[in-house]
Structures are given as structure tokens and as C-alpha cells.
Design a protein that fits this description.
The complex is a heterotrimer of chains A (201), B (349) and C (621). Chain A has one domain: Up-down Bundle (Four Helix Bundle (Hemerythrin (Met), subunit A)), CATH 1.20.120.80. Chain A contains 7 helices and no strands. Chain A has helices spanning 2-11, 22-47, 58-61, 64-89, 93-125, 133-164, 173-199. Chain B folds into 3 domains: 46-85 and 102-132, no CATH class; 139-250, Cupredoxins -  blue copper proteins (Immunoglobulin-like); 259-346, Cupredoxins -  blue copper proteins (Immunoglobulin-like, Sandwich). Classes of the chains: A mainly alpha (201), B alpha+beta (349), C mainly alpha (621).
Amino acid sequence: MADHAATHAVHDPNIGNTGLDHRKMGMWAFLGSDCMFFGSLIGTYLAYKGKSISGPTPHDVFDIPLTSYSAALLLASSLTMVLALAALQDNRVKVAAWWLLATAAMGLHFVLNQVYEFWSFVTHHGLTLSTSLFGSTFFVLTGFHGAHVTGGVIWLLLLVSLAWRGKLDRRDYTKVEVAGLYWHFVDIVWIAIFTIIYLIP
Amino acid sequence: MIQQPRTVARLVKRLDWTRLGLLTAVLLLASACSAVGWNWDTPMSTVIPKSDFGKVTHDIFMLISWWTLGIFIVVEAALVYACWRFRERPGAPIPKQVHGHTVLEISWTIAFAVVLLIIAIPTIRVIFKTQEAPAATALRVEVHGKQWWWEFRYPQQKITTANELHLPVGQTVSFQLYAPDVIHSFWIPQLGGKRDVVPHRVNHITLTPEVAGEYPGQCAEYCGMSHANMRFRVIVHEPAEFEKWVKAQQAPPVDSPDALAQQGKTLFTQSTCVGCHTINGISAGHIGPDLTHFASRKTFAGSLMNTTPDNLTKWIEDPAHMKPGALMPNLGMKGEQSKALAAYLLSLK
Amino acid sequence: MATHAAFMPGAKVEAPTFWGAVASWLTTVDHKRIGILYGSSAFIFFLIGGIEALIMRLQLARPDNTLVSAQTFNELFTMHGTTMVFLAIMPMSAAFFNYMIPLMIGARDVAFPRLNALSYWIFISGGLFLHVSFLAKAVPDGGWFGYANLTSHQFSPTHSIDFWMLGLQILGISSMLAGFNFLVTIINMRAPGMSLMRMTVFIWMSFVTQFLIVLAFPAITVALILLMFDRFFGTLFYSPAAGGDPLLWQHLFWIFGHPEVYILILPAMGIVSEVLPTFARKPLFGAPVIIYSGITIGFFGFGVWSHHMFSVGMGPVADAAFSITTMLIAVPTGVKILNWLCTLWGGSIRFQVPLYFSLGFIAMFTMGGLSGVMHASPPVDLQQTDTYFVVAHFHYVLFGGSIFGLFSGAYYWWPKITGKLLDERLGKVHFWLMMLGFNVTFFPQHYLGLIGMPRRIYTYAGDLGWNFWNLVSTIGAFTIALSFLVFIYNVIKTTRAGKVASADPWDGRTLEWSIPSPPPIYNFARVPEVQDRDDFWLQKHGDGHGGAPRPRPAPVTAAEIAAIHMPPSSFWPILLALAMAMMISGLLISMYQVIVGGLLTLYLMYKFAMEHHRPADGHGH
């Protein structure tokens, strides 16, 4: 029993006594922390909802069709992420790379949509960070989410680059899986933000 | 190499530090328990309450104090006793490896929870009782806490004053608390607990002073440079005296014939003073304290200083020197000017 | 890759050059060295915070004193609180997490050694950043709790609040990274046979602490981000004029702040839970209950935060609710004291210095806990909050509790870490001076609070009855300082010529005592197999029911040692920490520095991640 554990440890130092990979566990710990982070930001948004003294209201500015499209993009990108992992599992590295690229592309599209949305709020509606409580809470909450997506896109593109250079294969499954966990989390947070901020009146 | 003096080294080696420490601890404890030096009847004492609010919270404080004292004595005595009784004797075997005792552990958990229940019940009751809406007959006072002084307005009597709060004994007073700049805390220890003044909200505190007298108050939430200097005085009068005070405050400002005071009045009306201060019928500034009856107050500048010609002159000449960070600007008044202004203010009884 | 030949007994290792030694410390990923780095840094910051306290006490020794200005005093209490909480107690606990957690769970290192080093270097850059404010003459002065809207640009126009705000963000990142690391380490790197309930109590308390860190810090991160956006980018989060609520800050801060105080006390409770059984020669009484209490405290610690806000006018329902939750949490906290008492009861108590400090912990923490129970009642608290009564309370739990506990750990584990035993007599002098000084300083503050002395005041009038006991308190503070001089002298004396320690100088119960003092870099030559919480004790003494001691494992072979792989040193952690410091400090200097620092950070993160991707020796993972 002890021998098995010992030899197992020598073979893969990333697997611990629970049989789980350290890095996956570490990512779950980080995501738990990030939940509290977004929870605090969403809580702040809700605390100040309807309390703005002046400035455009959510109803005035929100473009629900556009943001629904963005939500669909992220959801689809979670699917392509899963497909990338499935391909990697079979050591079909090139296919995995394309799926990762698709994921990154949809993430990038999401961010660009958001940049457009922010720009139109500022220029067409005069809503900025300092216009009102709505401006402050909206931009900071969705901005930080967008920053998380951007970080994810960069990470995915790096993985694509590694794959194309022959430096990624089935042995790196856990590394890509960890990126996947992060990506799915970012997607789920968007579902929450989209529902609470955009959909609920 | 640090050379310890030989005598110190020998002292360290020879003294039984444990017995010495224990002896010191016992002596200290004995002296702490003695009443010497623990005078409770001080101007800002919280344990000799002079209002209904203060009394009802003091009762809970005493209840908790007795229980915690009891627990303290039991626990510390048990600790000391265990250390003495179970100290290692030479040649003693390894003691019995006891891992726990479920019944004992459950019992003391329940016992502790019961003590807390005994504390919780009156606590909840008093929370709700002391935050009830005041009767319509209550005297209303608006408190505006500003860096670093207190404004008091009596809307029913149409009086505005600063730093000295006058109240009638035996009448319930309902305070509405406002904070035009940052968070402060309104606290008159002898009359009860504190309530913060918070920007963007109106807080309330209701109490009935029961003993006439003078009670200091102080801001109790860090609010910047001169937080320590944001004090005030509360004077609780017999009802007749209070009415006299109200009438005096409602009267128009005194127009003293004194030459220096008249000089000061002219200077006042021609200077930027009028932009910050109100003197009824003369100026209408709302940034600094209302000065209509300035000289009726024994202290000024957030009750930091006594109202004397010397203090007042020095204040006018350089406020920030007397009170760090004071927001009253240095207007460059010197010599005759500051003396004249001081004379004018001191005439505003 | 570390050469295995160096591990062989009798192998010749060349003494490093001075710069070689410096480089090896700057690039170390060894949890033991990182622990020593945390401990020494924390102690230096502790002394700095202590000097700040001494100056404050000198100013308050007499009424209307003019030793320091109002501004300086406000800076002193801000930095004293911030330093003691974030730069002294937390990293001192981190020193013990780093050094002891792998040893006590039978592991060779933490889950992410380079991340561990990164945490330390980020911590140091945060501590230094906070103190650069002294050089920049913009020392934080908003209190350690930085209440809005005093901290807004309007009321705090200088950079002082910026230093505080950004410094805390840096420190928060450090703590969270370490939290992730230790969580994975404790869950995933335990020796075979060590189920969760067989983990010793110090590990359990540390485990709960890591959960608190990773779940509570995000709240203050957000609070500080909102403040940063208000101050730098004109948002309105804490702006009353725009409808913002200053109480938002208080809620977010205390949602972090209350779990934070458990972060500060649980490790010390863990240490005491190790020291008492060792010196009483009995197991911890009711260890499972202490473990469950720790978990309960961690969980419910998130439900009491507004007991710091009883005076803000939340209304009777909220006041009552938080009063009840606060009283509830007193139960698991309080019963631990009785468990510790019963550990001593029936034991055979050896009075050595580590035990003194643990006994001091119990005595002082009891007092602090009881004054805490008083604060749990809002009506009573309205008289006590923001007075010296609460200052007395939290110093009894944080100094009388955490600091005494941490010193207990220091004396206890000093032989394991350094291979030398601290002098017993000097240790006792330290203890009694500190005990005396501490009580003389803080016990009178209960009285001062009850007769109306508010907190955070740089001076006071002489006719309020506060003069004598303020002076006494100051004398006590200098007595505490004297006790630290004794400790420092003890450390220096021991380092130069102290008694050499064996592997197991205290007849300990847990795994760290089964390896040499100090341990070899790989800790355990053979990963131990564990059958009990007090496995090592049972190997030595048996179970006390007449059974023979467990058989000791067979001696380790050279081949086993040769097969050990330890992670190599790395310079990416310190470089990455520097880049992050450059980026964040750039917010106070220029946007170019932020951008360059940011790009550098991204680049170094990439290099850090890629360092062991496809290494040359073929250990692909």
C-alpha cells in the first residue's frame, strides 16, 4: 500500500493522496475565492440598484439583443473548450488547437462586443464611471469580468501557440483542463451577471 | 559579542524567575482588586449613568460583568490549580492518556450557552426598547457633526447653537443625527451610549436626562486630524432654567455700546467672516458655527478652549495653530483687529 | 536539478560564498527557508510596529502632551495597526505554516514550491511599499480600517491613503496565493494513512485559516478596488453626494475583517494545542471537538461582521441578529479553553518555556474573550465601542492570545528549525517581563474605556481622571519592550553558542520530532505511514493500555535517499514579485510605469509557467 503510493508519487508528483491533481485543486480553490470576489461586486451593484440620483437608467442604455448574443458566444465557447479537451485526450493535438483557437476567438469577440457596448454608453448616452452610481457599479463589475475574459483569451492563445509549436500534447491534459475550469467559471459568472444586471428589471 | 555584566549574569542564573513572576502577578492582582486608583465618578464615566437610556444599558453591563467575572475566576483558578497539582514529580510515569469525556464536554457547552442566553434575552429587549420612536412630546434636537465641532439646532424653538447642548432634566429628547462631511460619533458617556453620524443618512437616539448637571461629550469615530479635539458640553438644567436659556437664545444678538466691540462688529461685517458664520440679523453663513450668542458658551472651537479674551484672540489670529487642521482660515487678523473681533464676540451673550 | 550526491551522508558540500548564499536565499523554493524568511521579516516589522506603539504611549503618558503632532499620531496608530495585523502576526503565522505544515503531514514540500516563494516576495514588496510612504512623507493616516468617506479624495487629498490602499492589495495577493498553496498541500499531500481526522490540531487550525483567507480577502480586495476607483477614476462608490453610502465600505471591510481576526487567532490556538499535550504528556483533551469548534468558528465567522457596526444605526433587527450570532460564536471559542484546561488536568506537567507562553495564552485569551462577550451586547457595546475598553479587549486577544501563542511556537520549534535550544532562563525572564508588562499596559485600559476615554485621540484634557492610568500603561509598554530585548539577546546568544538540540528535545507527539534538527532539505528520508494523530508518540511509548510501542520503521537506506527528487531553485518568483510591485507602485508615479510593469508581469508569469514545461531531463509533466 505504502509502496504503491510511493511509486505513484515518483511517477507523477502532481497527483496527491486524494488521487486529484494539485493544479486542478489549486484552480478550484482560486475559483472559490473568485466567487467571493464577484459576489462582493454583484452585491455592491444590487445595493446601489435604483439609488442613482441622476443619469441614464439601465433601461435607457441596455441593448439586450447584443448582450444576449455575447452570452451565447461565451456559452458556445465553453462547448468548444470541452471539445478541445476531448481532442487532446485522444492526442489529436492539431484538432485540439483549432478548438482552443475557436474558444479564444469567441472570447475575444465577447470582449470586443463589450468594448463596443462601453463606448456606446459613453458616447451615445453620456454614461461614464463618474456619472452616477449605476455608471460606477456597472462599469466596474462588467469591466472586471471582461478583464477576466481577456486574461483567459491570452491564456488560451498561449496554449494554441504551444500546440502549434509541438510543445503541447496529451501529457499536458491537466494544464489545459485547468484552463478549461477557469474558462467555464468566467462563463458562469457572466450568466449570473447577465441575469441579475441585464434581465431582471 | 555582547558582554553581559557578570553580576547580571549571576542574577539571571540565581533567581527563581518562576516564583518571582508568580509573586509579582499575585501582588499586581491584589492591587488591581483594591479600590485605590479606580475612581468611577469622573466627568466622562459610563458606569454612573444619569439618564434612562444610560441606566437600562448599565443594568445589562452589570449583569454581564458579574457573569464574566465569575467565569474568569473559575477558569483562572482552575488553570493555576491544575498547574500546581499536576506538575511533574521526579520519576513520575507517563500519565493516563485520556482523550476526552463526551458528557463533560457536552455539559459545559450547554452551560456556556445558557449563560449567553441569560445575557441575550435582556439584550434583545433593550435593543428594541431603546430604539422605539420617541413620543410626540419629546424635545427635538438636530445634531450636525462637522469636522471638528458640533452644531445643535432646536427646530421647535428655532435656535441654532454650537458645541454646548442645553437640555431640560426629566424631559425626553429625540436627537436626529446628521453628518455633512464624514462619519463622526455623538457620545455623551454619562447619558448613555453613542450613535454615529453618517453622511447620507439620518440616525436617531432618544434619551431622558434624569440628573441636572454638566456632562462632557466627545466625537467617538476617527474623523481626521483634530478628531481628539471634537468635543462638546452638555448642560442639563432644571426646567425653569432651561426655559430661561431658550428665551435668551431666541433673543436678537446683543448690540454692545463698547467702542472696541463696535469696532469688532464693523470689522466682522466687512470681512469674509460673514461668509461662514451666522449672527442673526447681521450675517447668514452656514459653514462655521452660529455666533449669535457666542459669549453665552463657556467653551468654543469644538469645546477645545475656554471662552476667554486671550484664547479667542489667539484663535482668530491663527486657528490652525490652536487646533491642528482647523478649517477656519487664517484671515491675517492681527493686533487691534483680532482684539476688536474678540471683544465683539465676547459681547454676544 | 538538485544533485542527489549532496544528500548522501558524509558527502562533501562546499561552503557557499557570500553572494552565492544570498543568491540561494533569493531563489529558494524550500518551504523551510521560506518559513525562516517570513519569520525574520515578520519579527522586524513587529519591532517597527512596537516602536510606533511606544511613541504613541509616550505621547499619551500625560494630558495635553506635545511630543508628536496630531498628524504624526494619526499616522502612528494607522501604521501600528496595519503593521501588526498584516506585517507581523499574519506573516509570523505564515512562517509556521511554511515550516511546519509539510513536516507535520509527512510531506517533503508544499504543493507549489515556486508559488510559495512568490507569496513571500510579494509580501515583502507590500511591506516595503507601505513603509516607502515614510520616505515619501505621505504616511497612511486613515486608521488601519480606513473608513470611507474620510478616505475619499476630498478629505484625504494626499497620497497617504493611496499607499495604504495599494499596499494592502499587494499583501492580499500574497496571502491568497499562499492560501491556495496550503489548501492543496494539506488536502493532497498528507502521508499515507493520515486521514483528515488524523491530522494534528495545528494543521487543522491552519487548514481552517487558509479557507478563511481565500474566502475573506476578496471582500477587502473589492472594498479597496472601489476606493481606488473613487480616488483615481472618479467613481462614486463612497460618495454621499451622489447617493453613495459610506457604510458600504464598512460592510465590505468587516465581512473581511471579522474572519481576519480568526485568521489571526486560529494558528496560535493550533500552536497551543500542540504545546500543551507535549508538556503535559497527555493527548489533547477532546481533539475532535477542538477541530469541530475550529471549523464552526471558520464557518460562522462570516456571520458576525456587523458587531463592529453596532453604533452606525443599522436598526434593531440587524443589531439583534448580529448580537445573537456573535454570542453563538462565543460558544465554540470558549469551550476550547476548557478543553485545554483538561489537557493539563491529570497530566505530568513539565514547566519549560514553550509551556509558559501557552499558559499565558490561556490566561490572557480568556480575559480577552470575556470582554468580547460584553461587546456582543449592543446596548453595552454602545458605551464601549471606540473607547479604550475595546482597545484593551483586542490587545488581550491579539497580544495576550496571538503573540503569546506565536512565542510559544517560536520557543517550541526553535530547536527543530535551528538545531539549537533557546536558553531556558532567559526565556523565563522574557515570559515574566512580557506578562507583567502586557498586563500593566492593557489592564488599566479597560478602566480608561469605562470612564470614557475614546480611541484614536492624540491627546486628552487633564481634568477627566485619565492621567494616572495612562502613565501606568506607558510604563507597561516599555516593560514589554524590555522583554523583547531579552528575547533578542537570547536569540543572538543561542545562535552563537547555544545548546545543540536533538531531533526530539521535548518528547514530542507529532511527526516533525521524528526527523533531525534541523531537518535535511528533503525532510523525510522515507515518507512515513501514519496510523494515529499522535503516531510518533505511540511509536515511542505505546498506547498507555499496556500494548507495546508500535514498531519503529527500519533504517533508511542510501538508495532511498538517492531516489529523492527535490524541486530546484528558481529566480522567477522574485522577479515576478518585483514586476508586480513596479506595476502597482506605478499607479502613484506614472501610467508608463504601470504599463511597462504590467507587460513585464505578464511576460514573467509566462516564463514562470513555462519553467518546468518540457524540461531537458525528460520528466515531462
